[in-house]
Design brief:
Layout (H helix, E strand, L loop, with lengths): L6 H6 L7 E4 L3 E5 L7 E7 L14 H17 L7 E4 L3 H4 L8 E5 L9
This protein binds guanosine-5'-monophosphate and zinc ion.
Length: 116
């Protein structure tokens, strides 16, 4: 289920500390260590999935759950009304550095579009 050399698996298992915002059996949300916006939360499945390239049909419910939690966290963090962004970088050209599927929840300032 978890991968021994994966930093986000370790954060999900609380082997590495993080500023946890939300947790349940399937999901962990924690503050990004290098925030790009006043609100910058990472939302991960506790199960190791390397990227969107690796999701299977079995993950459908989990992915829906993560997005549901993201909408709740946006409200809890006070960014829902002004607006925010939920993004997941996939692969090298998508800008993915950590090979454990994660969503960035960014808010608290006006965000540019398109991204670089
Ligand atoms: P990616 O570029 O893979 O989409 O995003 C990885 C994100 O993880 C980056 O925003 C980076 O700041 C964050 N990050 C990397 N290592 C850690 C860590 O050990 N703890 C926390 N909280 N965030 C991390
Ligand atoms: Zn992992």
């Amino acid at each position: 289920m978890t991968k021994s050399d994966c930093i986000f698996c370790k954060i999900g298992a609380k082997e590495i500390p993080s500023s946890i915002i939300y947790e349940d059996e399937q999901v962990m949300a924690f503050k990004d260590i290098n925030p790009s916006a006043p609100v910058h939360i990472l939302i991960i499945p506790k199960k190791h999935i390397a990227s969107f390239n690796d999701v299977t049909e079995d993950d459908e419910k989990l992915l829906g759950h993560i997005q549901f939690i993201a909408s709740r966290l946006a409200a809890d963090m006070g960014v829902a009304e002004q607006g925010y962004r939920l993004v997941s970088n996939c692969g090298k050209w998508g800008g993915q550095d950590v090979l454990h599927l994660h969503y960035h929840l960014l808010g608290g300032r006006e965000l540019n579009w398109p991204p670089g």
